[in-house]
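hi! just following up on the protien thing from before. the input was this:
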Amino acid sequence: MPAGRYVEAVTDADLTLAPGESLALVGESGCGKSVLASALLGLLPGNAETAGSARLADGLDLLAADERTLARTVRGRRVGLVPQSPAAHLTPVRTVRAHLEETVRELADPAPAPHGPGRAAPRGRVRRAALRAAAEAAAARAAFPATHLDRHPHELSGGLAQRAATALALVGDAPLLLADEPTTGLDRDLVERTADELRAHTRADGRALLMITHDLAAAERIADTVAVMYAGRIVEITPAADFFGGPGPRHPYARGLLDALPERAFAPVPGAPPELGALPPGCAFAARCAAADPLCRTRRPTLTEGVACHHA
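and the predicted 3d structure came back as:
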């Protein structure tokens, strides 16, 4: 974008997650989902600005925390991340076992140094046997086969790379997991298995799970609650049982996402999302909505009773 131009990538996002609850944040690519996850972990570019608050159960405001606090007490310890394209986040010259052991060692240190370019990974005092056992236990929790622990990332299938990334996120027993497009690039059987495993970890360990995805089939298997994002705003938030069954979604965009599924109408939402830097004065979805009227084009709807639509 031109120098000096600011774009609001996410606006008025208001979400609550309880222990043991899974929330799926869904929407088309570019709507702001991954920006929200990056903001929670302090991983936005240096010129990005945030406002508002994002509080953990113990009161820590993630948006107000400095880099030292995020690195020492948040990442891995209180918030675990399952990244998008996990193979790209694994060091190609290190084995899965080495990744896990390093993570165990780092999280065993009560005050690790912040991550940064040229900075060595901090080392806690963990005996070799205990380190190895902890790494193998983390792999087992993510159903990663022990026979593949000494393989490098390029030797793993997409599904195994995903499990390795999940194992790394589970090492620190973080009460909140962020899973950013965890099923991208996987075939349908692996999508279902990955979704089921993430849901099982959430339920069994009492973790809260925020899954960011455009895959509604995965969201249906894992989510207790569905939040739909469009053009940087939440346009609907509803129980998953109502979204995928029962009365169904109320926002026209959310209904369009469901209708685009092959097992439903297989009819894509017409048109394309607006640029975040050039949003219309009214409803951002009005240009793609068959039910839009002059009110929709001139006044932006607010999220009321779980939906942001003048005609819901």
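The beta strands are 22-26, 79-82, 176-180, 208-213, 225-230, 233-239.
Residues 111-124 have pLDDT under 50 and may be disordered.
cheers
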